[in-house]
Amino acid sequence: MDMEGYKKGVKCSDCHSFDMDILSSRLFMCSDCGVVVGVENQIRDYFLHYTKIIPDEVYTRRDIQDHINIGLTEYTLQKVIKSNFRKLDNRERIYYFSP
């Protein structure tokens, strides 16, 4: 599938803008319309939609960060990975999406 027309990143659920700011480790805020949403819910929704396009994809930590496209703290990234992804192998840092 040609993914050139698609943009990676978490977008606002109301106005569909990609201009999201981090308020805290739990909240995003849209810079355009001001709506506040939960970090984990927004990221989970993003990967749910992405897995419909490309199912069974595996991710490294860097891939997950690139998909989110917002500078999360290490704590928040760990929390998102732990709650929404499963390790493919105990020794590797390769994950698959499994909410």
Please supply descriptive tags for the structure shown above.
99 residues, alpha+beta, three-stranded antiparallel sheet, 3 helices, 6 strands, 34% helix
Report on this model:
The chain has 99 residues and is of the alpha+beta class. It has one domain. It contains three helices and six strands, in the order βββαβααββ. The chain has helices at 39-53, 61-68, 74-84; strands at residues 20-22, 27-30, 36-38, 58-60, 85-87, 94-97. A three-stranded antiparallel sheet has the order 1-2-3.
Number of helices: 3
How many separate domains make up the residues?
A: 1
Give the SSE order as H and E letters. Answer: EEEHEHHEE
How much helicity do the residues have? 25-40%
Radius of gyration: 13 Å
Distance between the termini: 24 Å
Strand portion: 15-25%
Structural class: alpha+beta
Strand order of the largest sheet: 1-2-3
Compute the average pLDDT: 86
**Low-confidence parts, pLDDT < 50 over ≥5 residues?**
none
The description of the largest β-sheet is: 3 strands, antiparallel
Q: Tell me, what's the shape?
A: globular
How many β-strand stretches?
6
